[in-house]
Amino acid sequence: MSHIGCFVDGRRRDLPTVGGKGSITVGRCYGLCKKKGFRFFGVQIGKQCWCGNHYGRYGRRDKRECRYQCRGDKTTYCGGSWRNDVYATGLEEHASGVTLLGCFRDNSKRDLPLVHGAGHRTTKAYCLKYCKSRGYRYFGLQAGSACTCGNKYGSFGRVNAKQCRTRCRGDKRRTCGGSWRNSVYSTGIGSKPVRLPGLKHLGCYLDKSSRDLRKLVLSGSVTVPKCYKACKARKYRFFGVQNGYQCWCGNHYGRYRIRSNLECRVQCRGDKSTYCGGAWRNNVYATGVVVASKAAGVKYVGCFKDNRYRDLPVVYTANYKTTKAYCFRYCRAKGYRYFGLQNGNACTCGNTVGRYGRASSKDCARSTCKGDKRSKCGGPWRNSVFTTGLKPKSFKTPGMSHIGCFVDGRRRDLPTVGGKGSITVGRCYGLCKKKGFRFFGVQIGKQCWCGNHYGRYGRRDKRECRYQCRGDKTTYCGGSWRNDVYATGLEEHASGVTLLGCFRDNSKRDLPLVHGAGHRTTKAYCLKYCKSRGYRYFGLQAGSACTCGNKYGSFGRVNAKQCRTRCRGDKRRTCGGSWRNSVYSTGIGSKPVRLPGLKHLGCYLDKSSRDLRKLVLSGSVTVPKCYKACKARKYRFFGVQNGYQCWCGNHYGRYRIRSNLECRVQCRGDKSTYCGGAWRNNVYATGVVVASKAAGVKYVGCFKDNRYRDLPVVYTANYKTTKAYCFRYCRAKGYRYFGLQNGNACTCGNTVGRYGRASSKDCARSTCKGDKRSKCGGPWRNSVFTTGLKPKSFKTPGMSHIGCFVDGRRRDLPTVGGKGSITVGRCYGLCKKKGFRFFGVQIGKQCWCGNHYGRYGRRDKRECRYQCRGDKTTYCGGSWRNDVYATGLEEHASGVTLLGCFRDNSKRDLPLVHGAGHRTTKAYCLKYCKSRGYRYFGLQAGSACTCGNKYGSFGRVNAKQCRTRCRGDKRRTCGGSWRNSVYSTGIGSKPVRLPGLKHLGCYLDKSSRDLRKLVLSGSVTVPKCYKACKARKYRFFGVQNGYQCWCGNHYGRYRIRSNLECRVQCRGDKSTYCGGAWRNNVYATGVVVASKAAGVKYVGCFKDNRYRDLPVVYTANYKTTKAYCFRYCRAKGYRYFGLQNGNACTCGNTVGRYGRASSKDCARSTCKGDKRSKCGGPWRNSVFTTGLKPKSFKTPGMSHIGCFVDGRRRDLPTVGGKGSITVGRCYGLCKKKGFRFFGVQIGKQCWCGNHYGRYGRRDKRECRYQCRGDKTTYCGGSWRNDVYATGVVVASKAAGVKYVGCFKDNRNRDLPVVYTANYKTTKAYCFRYCRAKGYRYFGLQNGNACTCGNTVGRYGRASSKDCARSTCKGDKRSKCGGPWRNSLHNRTEAQELQDTWNVSHWLLC
């Protein structure tokens, strides 16, 4: 027996036979139905038994609709109203000889063609019987309700067995396929094996009235073997069976296209287990008969690409006749050497193959031959090529080469007729070579033409020259007006010619003479043309032009690949390219002549006022003749012009340089060289040199320049610019250095390098205008040399140059040292002798002396470059400009120590600031601050002195930030912008021993004083005030406004201020500060007030929030210290005290409700009453014990439960006691009376009871009233019970009660009976409730409900944690399931204890 499920019943019964009625059980119904031989039975409405072999006609329902208790056994279910709880009896029907083949995909075209809707009868046995009776080999079950039959399966593919899991409508325990999925089995029927050699199934093909297979040989009781034997006996290659009873034979098939095998599924009349085509559908097979193609020389060549221009030109669409044998015979009959098969339906023929390249062999296996579906016939635009066995006639043709296919015209391209008629390529070759022609062509299959040039009308594609030769059809002989041109092997030669390379050309022409030779263009022709005109070089360009010249390569060499254009006169050769010359030598060359010093300088423009002044030769001029004539006359340069003039001179280039392409007129005396052009000189150097020589002239280097000039004197010499000329110019002016700039300027000066050195390459960019062979600096670059002049020497120990400074009518350096023939050395001596620290030279002739400078500001060096009258090789200031020097005399500041560079701002690190202006020096500021009694002085921003007794309030900075030059001495640094260079003045306080002294800060004071006691006034110092306050036992003292001393035990009432506000000097010691106006500089004296008591210990740092861990909070403000808070909380009787946020005391009896915090969190707030100590932090208590302890009681079994609300109808109804209550006393009173729970309320009441929690739980903080009998413990609150258990237990005991587990539930209920017990909910109560109703199981749910039933686990088990989430409302110490979770128990013959029943009987009533 097995349970199947709950099913709907109707008036026409699902299980039709009555098994029995009345006191029914599941077991009794099983016996009744099995005895009658039924496979299934069902129990209904608790009292009916029904039997049958099928079920489920009206559908399945949920189990919860079949939960009527059986009349014969209430602990089990027996269906419902019109609901059968169905079981199997275990009897089965068998299907023998059946094999499961798998799960297969199906669709509307049907894998197994016969489909029978069996409905609720659908089982494996039923479908087997149905399909086997119809002669099918296979059957299938689909979608739980259909049988399918057929002789083949798997057309749409196999799928996973999981997709065939739909339950059979005839037996819900079994699976019957799925939606469009067949579970396929064999029926056991099979055909006998027959040996049919060569048989192959080719597919299902469409047929029409003009038959695809022409011969009908059988009709009637046809089978595949019968048809095979009939057609093979008649030598047919193919046969087909049609519509179940016809047999057709033929040698071709497929004329009307292939169809799906699904259309050829009519059963054969002679064998129903196989298919024999369909209506107008042939199931086609091959018989194995083969028609072979055999011929000598037939070979497979390969797979070749084709396109619309055709590799093999003859194409015949053979369609269903297309086979290798047919195409072979077709092409051989036409005399072609090759045949091909293309796209399965075409034969192609030709004499050459492979024009478009080979293809992959896979490409020629894509199309099936239409005449034989078993073979492959090429592919789309792919020829599968074979030889026909025919070969061309052979001829001896030494030197012959094929050139290409060319157009012909009425004026013949090859003008001479070689022959006509039965022409072959070999015969035409012999005829034309015999006549001495270099080329021949065959045309229109029957004409032969000869000539020495070809290509006049242009080249065409090879496919236009594919007429078969009349004398040999296996070769091509041109086309209509198309010559297939060949070379005979005869050549013309060009001797003595050397290829020089491929060179770039443009419209300005590399080789100036250009001749368009057209179709005559060959290397031999161009050589002859250029050589006859006396040129040294010739070139071939663009295949159709000759170029001639005496020089080449002006526009650069290019890769030889760019000179590959075919010569129009000979297409086998290359003749340059587009704007590319293939250059060769003609063999003409000038005789070598020794001309020492000769150098070509370029092509230069000339005008009527000549660039080179002297004409020395005219007529038959050559370069050597002109060189000798000009060198003999000592000229440095010469030029040849317009082919017949010779000019000489020492300068050139006045009218600018031109391109060498403008100087290409041939010399009259030597045509192989160029002699300038019209108004163009080809200029050369003769080698004659004019040297610059002087003692001390040396190259200094290349230097940068700009518009302010490194060398101040600039002379634009233009075409006279040479090194020699600039040397003479600058030396004559008395300068130490000269330079050459930009090729056209001389620069002079006494100093060099102001703007830095430049790369030597920068001074080699500009050619000297006076000598193009030399370099004269560059743009803004001086090529600098010494002139050999040196400055006068003086002894000047300690002298240093400071810079160029502005002067005014009130002189910057006020004393006149001297005037007239002044030098720097003389002025130094005059001013040092008078004891001045600085001197300046001005306007080249004045000397001024002084101890300060710079009043009117500094200027650039370039404004101080007047030459000194006494020494022109040095500078002596400028107009109202002093070139200032130090004499070496110094003023000293003794006993001064540099302390560092420090940050400053508007609040001032050193409070006294003095603007010293141009007097600012270290010595001046020392004197100023020391006279005012300060310990430190600083220099700031180059112009200010700062004084004070402390420094560094705003931090130290890098020394680099204190580099501003002192206005009183530009050689020294005086701090920076908001930066003090701080020094000590040497003043310091005497050390005094003051034990316990500690500076606490600067604090605000008011009329109601922060420190209450004034003890001193007048000449106050910090040590005096310390001693006076310590003697009076005060913990703190403060000095105020420089002359007052105040004492006290608390400080800080009016908040702390910046130390910068406490910087009034003490009247008794000006080197220290004594507060400020209403500002105390506060110190600790070291006197300590300790907190001492037995049991005081540090507990730790604890978190707090607005609900308070320690409930009593007192804001002590500036009185807040550890000692004060200890006394405050102990006086109130609390066990713990805490310090919080620096200003509050907290008290309580318990601690740590919100957890511990880091000790760092309790060190964040300084005690307001003692700034040296820490008093907790924000929402952080630093907690200590007060030393008080609670009273002790013996309380065995007592446990604390929590804080609960109380009401007028008391939660714990019995009064235990009132007055001086403690937790221990209340425990004793209630336990004595036998109560399970007790509660203390409002500090003075004791209540007892066996249940609690009616009004809900509250937070612990609402139960913190101190007990009247023991203030160190809490006793509830107002209408709040602090509830405890006494340890008294009421147990539930029954035989056979066991815990089953935790189970899921939902609104459809796992246990159908639900009773909401609320605060009565306990395990004992629910046990009694469900037992009284006769159920096997009881459960506890959500803390407030009992559930009962006979079966469990319908919705599955849950985690035990899920049943420990809800506390029992009747006993808060126990767990009663969870939300939608049943904590489940069962019983077997359970007996309840009488004492438990008596205790709880009133609840059941």
Q: Which properties best describe this structure?
A:
6-stranded antiparallel β-sheet; mainly beta; disordered C terminus; 11% helix; 1405 residues; flat
Q: What is this structure, in a nutshell?
A:
This protein is mostly beta strands. A hairpin with a 3-residue loop joins strand 29 and strand 30 (447-451).
SSE topology sketch:
Blueprint: E1 2-8, E2 17-21, H1 26-35, E3 40-44, E4 48-52, E5 60-61, E6 83-88, E7 100-105, E8 114-117, H2 124-132, E9 138-142, E10 146-150, E11 167-168, E12 171-175, E13 181-186, E14 200-206, E15 215-219, H3 224-233, E16 238-242, E17 246-250, E18 258-259, E19 281-286, E20 300-305, E21 314-317, H4 324-333, E22 338-342, E23 346-350, E24 368-369, E25 372-376, E26 382-387, E27 401-407, E28 416-420, H5 425-434, E29 439-443, E30 447-451, E31 459-460, E32 482-487, E33 499-504, E34 513-516, H6 523-531, E35 537-541, E36 545-549, E37 566-567, E38 570-574, E39 580-585, E40 599-605, E41 614-618, H7 623-632, E42 637-641, E43 645-649, E44 657-658, E45 680-685, E46 699-704, E47 713-716, H8 723-732, E48 737-741, E49 745-749, E50 767-768, E51 771-775, E52 781-786, E53 800-806, E54 815-819, H9 824-833, E55 838-842, E56 846-850, E57 858-859, E58 881-886, E59 898-903, E60 912-915, H10 922-930, E61 936-940, E62 944-948, E63 965-966, E64 969-973, E65 979-984, E66 998-1004, E67 1013-1017, H11 1022-1031, E68 1036-1040, E69 1044-1048, ...
Antiparallel strand pairs: 1-5, 1-6, 2-4, 3-4, 3-6, 7-13, 8-10, 9-10, 9-13, 11-12, 14-18, 14-19, 15-17, 16-17, 16-19, 20-26, 21-23, 22-23, 22-26, 24-25, 27-31, 27-32, 28-30, 29-30, 29-32, 33-39, 34-36, 35-36, 35-39, 37-38, 40-44, 40-45, 41-43, 42-43, 42-45, 46-52, 47-49, 48-49, 48-52, 50-51, ...
Helix pairs in contact: 14-15
